[in-house]
Write a structure and sequence with these properties.
With about 240 residues, the protein is of the alpha/beta class. Helix content is about 30%, strand content about 20%. It has a single domain, classed as TIM Barrel (Alpha-Beta Barrel). α5 links the parallel β5 and β6. Bound molecules: SN-glycerol-3-phosphate and magnesium ion. The site of SN-glycerol-3-phosphate has 11 residues, from β2.
Length: about 240
């Protein structure tokens, strides 16, 4: 049985503060095949890596990312209560590209445009990915499928996937019709009727989030998904090596 690729969710976020350079480095050191991360735009138009629109949960600051310049955001500590990582700053997307350049890792860039649309984010992320020579190693995803269609329009070569979590009918057909490369379902979406068969028929990759328990990791291997997105890459790699 082929094992899924292992992508570290927000970096190795089960072991280090999420969406930080130490978490991405740790994922690479653990032998993950890729990392998943979330991007947002600062007030001065810089692409930074952070899950929430606000910095309250993951830093010692408060407020919306879009209301801060990059320089202002850099003053906050993103160790998220984990003192072993005290002093960790919010990373820019460019820093993550540079950090992972020497590795063979894939980056799944999730555009956090569901709540706030961040005008220009699609253009900026495509430009940066091209400039850094990363187009072949990135897959773009978003819960906002308009963002993904925009990415495809800007760069037809970009690999793309639709994120979703609901019980929508015929997602494989919808993905094929819109010519994306992948679906990124929540784990529980795998049980919908004929799901894997339909994805295979349409040649749609299935990259599943967030797969953290042994049982779910093993079930994903049984289903034959392309990748699991997990907070625990070390555990997933060990389990799949058995
Ligand atoms: O991309 C998979 C997963 O990260 C989607 O949900 O909320 O963790 O960004 P979230
Ligand atoms: Mg995400």
């Amino acid at each position: 049985m082929n094992s899924p690729l292992v992508w570290a969710h927000r970096g190795a976020s089960g072991y280090a503060p999420e969406n930080t350079l130490p978490a991405f480095k740790m994922a690479a050191d653990m032998g993950a095949n890729g990392v998943e991360l979330d991007v947002q735009l600062t007030k001065d138009g810089e692409i930074v890596v952070c899950h929430d629109e606000k910095i309250d949960r993951t830093s010692n600051g408060a407020g919306f990312i879009r209301d801060y310049t990059l320089e202002e955001l850099r003053k906050f500590d993103f160790c998220n209560g984990n003192i072993a990582f005290e002093g960790t700053k919010i990373p820019t997307m460019e820093e993550v590209f540079d950090l992972l350049e020497p590795t063979g890792l894939t980056i799944n860039i999730e555009l956090k445009t569901g709540e706030y649309f961040y005008p220009g984010l699609e253009e900026k992320i495509v430009d940066l990915t091209r400039k850094k020579g990363w187009l072949g190693r990135v897959i773009f995803s978003s819960f906002n499928h308009y963002s993904i269609m925009k990415i495809k329009e800007l760069e037809p070569e970009a690999k793309t996937g639709f994120l979703y979590a609901d019980g929508t009918l015929n997602m494989p057909g919808y993905a094929a019709e819109n010519q994306v490369d992948a679906l990124h379902p929540a784990f529980y979406n795998l049980q919908y009727p004929d799901y894997m068969d339909d994805c295979n028929m349409f040649d749609i990759d299935v990259n599943v989030w967030t797969v953290n328990t042994d049982a779910a990791l093993l079930k994903c291997r049984e289903y034959g998904v392309n990748a699991v997105i997990t907070n625990y890459p070390k555990k997933a790699i060990e389990l799949y090596s058995k």
